[in-house]
Amino acid sequence: MSLRDRQRAETRLVLQTHAVRLFTDVGYDATTVADVAAAAGVSAMTVYRHFPTKEDLVLYDEYDPVTASAVAAQPAGPLPLRIGRALESTAALGSSSEKAFLLARLRLMISVPALRARHLDSQYATADAIVAALCGASPAPEEEFRVRATAMACLGAAHVALIRWAETDEEGNLAGLIRQALTSVFGSQQPGSLAVPTLKEESPPGACEPPLPWNRL
After folding, report:
1. What is the pTM (predicted TM-score) of this model?
2. Where are the alpha helices (DSSP H) in 41-135?
3. pLDDT tens for residues 16-57?
């Protein structure tokens, strides 16, 4: 990363930190971009140069290329397992201060309707990055469909884990919660097959077997 890129990244982090603090303490709707700029000691134009919209001050991150690289680096195996392992490993990154910042962002995404809607767009962008990492620039339609469907299923499970993590005050390890969510969706992965939880014949209606364990990393 060049010096210019590092400076831009540092500026974005400063702006986001002030924005998330103000949105949390004062309220998202009650805080303007001008308020964020004043807190950071810059002009509103500087904020907009780094974050085109107010929502971006919360939603922006650089996890998509990190996640895509982690998926591409996984050994050969069932696609849900490759993507799931990458999501777990990405969740394990970062310091305690970064986790606190992520928690604050997540709580805003959960509580602010406009951010919840935009967050869905970010999941599509992450799926795009995973498809590109696994299929290249011009994948066959059938392969693109298979990878995208699996990626969105994994990301949906991970999103549920993120919400649980945020709502329970960081109760439990995030990577572990993601693994539990993936287990609930996919069950136990074996090479070349996908086993999912099934209904017990002797169980009452609506009762399911305990989810099968997600393969250990």
Report:
1. 0.76
2. 44-50, 56-59, 63-73, 79-91, 96-111, 113-135
3. 999 999 999 999 999 999 999 999 999 999 999 999 999 999
